[in-house]
Design a protein that fits this description.
The chain is an alpha/beta fold and 260 residues long. It is built from seven helices and 13 strands.
Length: 260
Amino acid sequence: MRGAANLRGQQLEVLLRALVRVNEIRLRRSPRSAGEPRFEAHPTGWRPPGEEEWQDAASVLLRGAGDSVDLICLRAAQLRLRGVDARVQAEISPQSTALSAWRPVLLVQGRPVSEDCGLRTVSSWMRITFVLDLFNGVGDEALSHETLDVLLDALTEIDRNYLLAHPETPALYSLRDKLLYMEEPPGQEDWQDIPTCLRMRYCDCEDVASWRTAEAQVRQGLEARSSFSKHETANGATLYHITSKVGGRPEDPSRFFGMR
């Protein structure tokens, strides 16, 4: 269980860093403030164990409330924009079952400064939803694109960590008959890591692009990156598609798994 708990903590910290970075992007471009947000245990509504919603800075300030993750990641971003060394750590305590307890801890100059914010549950399966205020018209496009890059890098890092911890994982392109390409309904975006893709047996473009990018980095030692492209449809809608660039060459794993 120790190795599993370590990986869970590692993956949580990837997401915490991503949220801090997303907050930095937002606050640098739009440093508005609506006063000090208050703490609420469930600002977006109660979620069952294993499911969490993390708000970005804009959502916290708009709602005027956030939970411990929201407020600590907001504070870390504010400090970093002032040139202070600040980051958020996942303090996780493994137990003898599939469940573990963890808490976010703010580190400033390497020293913890957060008060006890209560334990949260982390299990072998978790669903973390980022609540983001993005894609609000053309004026918001640059901010949204920068945020999208941060999130793609985070999913790639999560997949890279998983492959390093699970070297027995099959190669992506060996799973043609075991994974089905499937888009989410309009307005819904579920980003899946490798074990979730294997469990659900379906994937979308960001899922397989991040998997392929991580695989190329870990197993082939190649320079690789996931990136997005923007497309306008005939009815005026905007679509984003995620692909990989591996060793300087573009790859589109979605087409391999049935995207038309």
